[in-house]
């Protein structure tokens, strides 16, 4: 499959890596955008976007960004902190009184954004359609007892993060969750990004499918084993309750939903542009970005069952195979399920975005994105 787009000659080695990924046996669609010092040096795309492998990936093809969405929500909340409308260390229950139930009186926004709140999964069985009902899901969040005392340890909240952050946004900002996130994190930068996709944009969205035969790394196999054999385990519930979580991503109601943990729709240019905006000081005051990208939690993750390291809404680089952005120790960003990745390296002034519609099985960083990031570093 041919590569489309632009490549600065200095970064030809990255374009070669991109072409090799596109020629892999199961490859479908890919896009990559990299900015260095605010200048776009790579803007590549190729492959196919529909389930029948007939429609070529276009420059403006959108794809579900999954957890790459989380930092967009974090930035919206941190802007409210900067405006004095929200406090990092004030109990969430002061803004959302119902949240104080079941021993959650001490949980703060800082705990939520660094995955230390303990509300990583819902233990009450939910129905498939509950996923799309905001009041039902936020009521379940409010009633949920935490898995540990706030701040004691950490465990990634793959989907509950969206209702935790989203309900705070709704109550404090006074807009719908999607309107708030887009207006605060994407619109100021002119990004092609949606949280709650309008029906008229459906034709641009790439169909997602899963690769076959690749069982992932040790961390992926460990998590898969737990989810198949321990139905009541925290990790299992985090990914399977409501039961529609893993099966809805190509459905219209998923795209319409405004769930800031997992269903932003954008492309590689959206991700790179977002991180360039952060590097350029266009979204957050410098001191707040510094606070958001310093280490808040590190070590064994009680949900993902591997080591993770978080700031506030951002995953931080960790020098182990499945958790490094491949640039430097100051890098910050977030991977998304199946392979997408957005991050910034302030030391090298790099903003990076990668997306694909062929989902891999990896828990944190997908090796395809890591190969490209390593190639970028080699060209600098």
UniProtKB/TrEMBL annotation:
It comes from the Bacteria. Pfam families: Beta-lactamase (PF00144). Residues 16-374 form the Beta-lactamase-related domain. This is CubicO group peptidase, beta-lactamase class C family.
């Amino acid at each position: 499959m041919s590569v489309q787009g632009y490549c600065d000659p200095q970064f030809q080695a990255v374009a070669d890596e991109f072409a090799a990924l596109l020629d892999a046996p199961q490859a479908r669609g890919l896009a990559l955008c990299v900015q260095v010092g605010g200048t776009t040096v790579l803007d590549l795309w190729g492959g196919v976007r529909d389930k029948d492998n007939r429609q070529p990936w276009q420059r403006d093809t959108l794809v579900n960004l999954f957890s790459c969405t989380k930092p967009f929500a974090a930035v919206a909340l941190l802007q409210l902190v900067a405006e004095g409308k929200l406090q990092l260390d004030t109990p969430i229950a002061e803004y959302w009184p119902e949240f104080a139930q079941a021993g959650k009186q001490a949980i703060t926004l800082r705990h939520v954004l660094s995955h230390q709140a303990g509300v990583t999964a819902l233990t009450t069985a939910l129905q498939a359609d509950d996923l799309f009902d905001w009041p039902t899901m936020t009521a379940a969040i409010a009633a949920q007892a935490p898995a540990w005392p706030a701040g004691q340890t950490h465990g990634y909240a793959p989907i509950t993060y969206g209702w935790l952050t989203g309900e705070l946004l709704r109550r404090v900002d006074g807009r719908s969750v999607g309107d708030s996130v887009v207006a605060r994190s994407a619109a100021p930068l002119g990004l092609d990004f949606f949280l709650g996709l309008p029906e008229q944009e459906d034709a641009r969205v790439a169909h997602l499918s899963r690769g076959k035969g690749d069982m992932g790394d040790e961390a992926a196999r460990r998590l898969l084993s737990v989810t198949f054999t321990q139905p009541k385990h925290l990790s299992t519930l985090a990914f399977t309750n409501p039961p529609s979580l893993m099966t809805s991503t190509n459905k219209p109601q998923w795209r319409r939903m405004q769930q800031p943990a997992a269903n932003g729709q954008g492309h590689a240019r959206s991700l790179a542009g977002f991180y360039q905006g952060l590097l350029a000081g266009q979204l957050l005051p410098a001191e707040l970005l510094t606070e958001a990208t310093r280490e808040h939690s590190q070590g064994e993750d009680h949900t993902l069952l591997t080591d993770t390291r978080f700031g506030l809404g951002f995953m931080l680089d960790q020098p182990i195979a499945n958790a490094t952005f491949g640039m430097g120790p100051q890098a910050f960003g977030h991977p998304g399920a199946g392979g997408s990745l957005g991050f910034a390296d302030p030391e090298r002034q790099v903003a990076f975005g990668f997306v694909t519609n062929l989902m891999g099985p990896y828990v944190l960083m997908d090796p395809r994105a890591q190969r490209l990031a390593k190639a970028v570093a080699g060209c600098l």
